[in-house]
Structure formats: structure tokens, C-alpha cells
Amino acid sequence: MRPPGPAAALDALNARHPWSHNDHFHGWILRRLPEHRRRAIDVGCGRGGLLARMAPHFDEVLGTDSDAEMRHRSAERCAGLPNVSVTGSPLSELSPGADLITMVAVLHHLDLADALTRVSDLLDPGGRFLVVGLAPPATLHDQLWNLVSAVTNPVIGLVKHPRPDRSGRQPPGFPVADPTVPFDEVRAHAESLLPGATLTRRLAFRYTLEWTKPQRRHRTT
């Protein structure tokens, strides 16, 4: 019997030492919170993990998700947090006045230009927009980053989950959609609509986007 190839061996190792690629970036977000922390919005809040971690830092935390099962799980997880609420309202229906807007593996589900424009409208001056995103590999640079992610993925799994998981149990999956906008195109849109935004390729097949809305300039007479 022929031994499994490298790809199959990596898949098997990943399955024995699973870890959440999205939750991995919660710390990145928490280290970049804005100075003013009245209201935070997590768009596509999923099972509510990030909502719970942001709750101690803000007066109000709002999670939005279009999927009813995800909203239910978020509400359950945050039931003991009185400053957290969950809604199914889309980005276009949210009220302005946010100090932080986060999107973790969500931006590729939305119309890119519309979402970036709406975020700019919703944020107060000095507010921050933090994204953990996915993009399809379109260039050699993209493909090399994906290769590095594939190789380091099991190493990170061993560190985060050193004991092999033999249960085979997995939590209900998130609604998924394949990303269609390449990294360079996301960056071009962000630089146009959110001047000063910083995009960085990351391991775990992700990129990050970071933007702070400029403060209003005072008129001089």
C-alpha cells in the first residue's frame, strides 16, 4: 500500500491538532482597540467569541449576523453580559456612532466598495476598523504566502493543541463563501476609500486590514 502523500499527511496532522484560524486573530484585534470605547460593532459575529472578549472594554458591544443559528449561539454565549446585544440587521441599517468595527472572515461575503464606504460612515472620528480577511491567490506572491501558511498550519496546531484530538467532534460550521477579490484589489479599494489603511498578509491564509478614521479638522479664521 502506497504511503500517503505530503498533502494527505498535512491534512491528517491538522485534523489531530485543530485550531481556529479566526479566533487566532482575536488577540490582534484586542491589542488595537481605539482610545474611545463607547460602542463596538462586530459584523458577522458568528458564535460570539469576539463579542465576549470585547465586552469588558466597551460600554456597548453589538454583534450582527445574517445567519439565525449564529445569532442564537452568540446570544447564548453572551447571555450574562448586559452590554452585549445581537441583531440580524445588515451593515446598511446600522446606526452611526461606532468607535470600533470588526470583521473576521466576513468582508469577502459583502460588496467590497459598499462595505468600506458604509464603515467610514458608521465610525466616529478616531474610530477604528479592524479586518481579518480572506482573498484568493492571484499572484505568485499570494501563492507563496499560501504555501507558507500550509506548512506552518500544523506547527501552530501543535503549539495551540498539543494533545491529539481523537473525538472527531466539530462545532457547527460557519456559513462559508469562497473569496473572489484578490489581496491586491482589496488593497487598492481600501487605499482609495479608506486613505491610510494598512493591509498585511498573514499566516493562516488570512490578511489584516487596519484603519483609523481621521479626526475632524478645525477650521481656522
TrEMBL record:
What the entry lists under SUPFAM superfamilies is as follows: S-adenosyl-L-methionine-dependent methyltransferases (SSF53335)
Q: Where is the Methyltransferase type domain?
A: 41-129
Q: Which GO terms describe its molecular function?
A: methyltransferase activity
Any one GO biological process: methylation
Which key words tag this protein in UniProt?
Methyltransferase, Transferase
Q: Which domain of life is it from?
A: Bacteria
Q: Show which residues constitute the signal peptide.
A: none
Which ranges of the sequence are coiled-coil?
none
Q: Does the keyword Cell membrane apply?
A: no
Concerning InterPro entries, the annotation shows:
Diverse_substrate_MTase, Methyltransf_12, SAM-dependent_MTases_sf
Q: Name one Pfam family in it.
A: Methyltransf_12
For this entry, the protein name equals: Class I SAM-dependent methyltransferase
Can you name the source organism?
A: Gordonia caeni
Upper classification of the organism: Bacteria, Bacillati, Actinomycetota, Actinomycetes, Mycobacteriales
